[in-house]
Amino acid sequence: MFAKAHIVANMSPRWPLHPAYMHTFGITENYFVIVEQPLSVSLLTMVKSQLSNEPLASSLHWYPNHE
């Protein structure tokens, strides 16, 4: 199934150490629709959470002033 898969595009995150939390996307005949919402995952906090056995939710960060 994935033997013919290939990357058609890529994008850089708005906040490199806090990539947006993305769980779904839309697709049409000509476009991929990806929403980069202001909810992000702090990579540093995620590592700390894993080491201290805290839930992933503790590494989520909301940027209220961004659309």
Q: Could you characterize the architecture of this molecule?
A:
The protein is α+β, with helices and mostly antiparallel strands and about 70 residues long. It has one domain (about 1-65). Helix content is about 15%, strand content about 15%. The protein contains 1 helix and 4 strands; from the N terminus they run E-E-E-H-E. It has one helix spanning about 45-50, and strands spanning about 25, 30-35, 40, 60. A two-stranded antiparallel sheet has the order 1-2. The chain has a two-stranded antiparallel ribbon with strand order 3-4. A hairpin with a 4-residue loop joins strand 1 (about 25) and strand 2 (about 30-35). The longest helix has 9 residues, at about 45-50. About 5% of the residues are buried. The model has no long low-confidence stretch (mean pLDDT about 90).
